[in-house]
Amino acid sequence: MDVRIDRVAVSYGSVDALRGVSIGASHGGSTVLVGPNGAGKSTLMSVVLGLLRPDRGEVLADGEVVACARHGATREFRARLGYLPEAVAFSENLTGRQVLRFFASARGVGRKRVEATLERVGLDGAAGRAVRGYSRGMRQRLGLGVAVLHTPDLLVLDEPTGGLDQEGLSVLWEVLAEWKAAGRSVLMSTHEIALVERHADTVCVLADGRVRAVATPDALRREAALPVRVSVELAEEAAAAQVASGLRDRHAGVEHEGRNVGLLERPEELLEVMRAVSLPTAPVRHVRVEEPGLDEVTLRILGGSRWDASPVH
Amino acid sequence: MGRVARALIVHELVERTRDRWVLVSTLLFALLAAGITLYGRSAADSEALVTAPSLVTLSSLLVPLVALVLGHDAIVGERERHTLGLLLSLPVSRGEVLLAKFVGRLLALGLAIGLGLGSAALLLGGAQRGLLLSLVPPTLLLGASFLSIGMLLSVMTRRHATAASLAVTTWFLLVFFYDLGLLALLVGTGGAIGQGAIAWLVHLNPAGLYRMTLMARLVGTGSLSDLGLAVALPGAAAQAAIWAAWIGGPLVVGAAMLLRRRAVTA
Asked: Which of B11, B19, B262 is the closest to A102 by Cβ?
């Protein structure tokens, strides 16, 4: 499903939660919403889910208006959505299987699919246990199971990594890969962009109800123009001092501590830095080149990055 | 009702029958009803005529409480568990969600009432079982009224604890203090308010209507007069209207509030 959010605006009294936001989630693509608390991520998801009617703007699915100021998201559209709320807590008295069976019967899905989904999210062994005995990660996996149960065309995930252990994260990554491979769409919000960036096709940075940037992760990195962090460990302290001195002639912000030299530099200058640290008299023991994560890129776009504050680790 | 609403009714019924508080209340009701019946059997020949009024009194106290307990967290509980958004993102209207939750919980309440009065009926002789079983429909109406009020509280409030406090307050007000308030009104006004008006005020309260109509049926209006409870019962149409207002009114108001609320999950 090709989903387009077009100039959506929402206000609560005098507070503008969304101010004309436009983004898309295309076939086989995943769009990740990032931004500080109060940026408008949840409000935007609520509009898509039909929990909130926008004041202005539209949501289009495959070119058809499915939500606008006159009506919230239509039933037909909602039937094609799967939703994982943040920190979902299903009824403690029911078993995981009972929870999934309810959503299966509400969605018109057979029991075989329930069992397959339990297996998919790794809860087949705990399906008969009451939810009260589930860990936070297991509850999150159950929520993921509810979201994917009816193989929706659009998966809406609110903080999907919250509480997930390594096994849970693996399940999540597999589901995301499966969704993209099948040409279905994913819209998710997260505070842990560094964790999900490998699975993001488009990242939308929201702040104060506005889109501050929307692009692929690579394009965002270019836009943020953050330097890479280079850390070099040499065999001898004297050699490190010599390298630091040589680098200082051409580069700013070079730091030197013992046998370690560090600096921040634009990626295109990397080869020149490497040439400068290659002294014939003292071998280089270790080199580390660190790219800024998308969390730092996002912070830079929002004006709060401290990436370039300390080059030496 | 659509597929989602039907699934929700079953889900609510299953979930409620696993709720510890509902189970405890149901068990308490059944035990007290059985206890009253056993006591009635030992006390008189015509046990049903002794037992039934006592069961009406018991039901008028316990059933509203169980119903309020069942209803008060219907929406606010989902909101606190972050599942309300999930529920409302299904292809179903908000009104249907509220109605389905009401029906599912009413079925659970019906089971509790059936178990309580049914256990009492089982302990009685065959001929008098019918009399006790005839208490089930009006008791269900009483329960439905308070369940509906509980559902409204669950829509109105933002926190489960607030809904629970309001539910208990409502129970005290309508079940305990209402009649005392009317008595105070009667005494305080020196009888300026006529008995007819007071009777109407009694019957406007679902707990009062339940008690008075069943007592009149079980012991006769003559006996009520002897007890100083000589009140003219409302006609069948008026009774139906009062029940409809108490059952439908809070639900309609709740549905309207749910529909009007913008950030429903907040």
From this structure: B11
The residue range of the domain holding B261 is 3-265
Q: Do A53 and B262 touch (CB under 8 A)?
A: yes
Q: How far apart are CA B154 and CA B74, in angstroms?
A: 6
Mean pLDDT over A170-198 rounds to 91
**Number of structural domains found in chain B:** 1
Give the Cα separation of A148 and A171 in Å (integer): 12
* Rounded-to-integer distance, Cα A128 and Cα A165, Å: 21
Predicted TM-score (pTM) of this structure: 0.87
Give contacts of A86 with chain B, Cβ < 8 Å.
Answer: 82
A90–B264 CB contact, under 8 Å: no
Per-residue pLDDT of A52-86, as tens digits, reads: 999 999 999 998 999 998 888 899 999 999 999 98
* B-chain residues near A159 (CB < 8 A): none
- H helices of chain B, in order, are 3-16, 20-43, 47-71, 76-80, 84-88, 94-123, 126-133, 136-156, 160-171, 178-188, 195-204, 206-226, 236-260
Residue A203: what are its φ and ψ, rounded to 5°? -115, 130
Amino acid making up residue B7: A
Percent of chain B residues topping a pLDDT of 90:
53
Higher pLDDT, B221 or A185: A185
pLDDT at residue A297, as a whole number? 87
Interatomic CA distance for residues A301 and B6, integer angstroms: 48
3-state secondary structure B105-143: HHHHHHHHHHHHHHHHHHHCCHHHHHHHHCCHHHHHHHH
Q: b or e along A237-266 (b: 16 or more beta carbons within 10 Å of the residue's beta carbon)?
A: eebbebbbeebeeebebbbbeebbbbbbbe
User: At A132, phi and psi to the nearest 5?
Assistant: -60, -20
The per-residue pLDDT for A309 is 61
The rounded distance, in Å, linking the Cα atoms of A205 and B4 is 35
Tokens representing residue B29 in the block = 């009701």
The alpha carbons of chain B give a radius of gyration, in whole angstroms, of 20
Q: Please determine, for residue B70, whether its predicted confidence score (pLDDT) is greater than 80.
A: yes
User: Does residue A204 surpass a pLDDT of 90?
Assistant: yes
For residue A211, what pLDDT is reported?
92
- The pLDDT of B133-147, averaged and rounded, is 94
- CA dist B149 and B252 (Å) reads 11
Per-residue confidence (pLDDT) for residue A106, from 0 to 100: 95
Residues of A in contact with B108 (CB under 8 A): none
Q: What is the pLDDT of residue A266?
A: 82
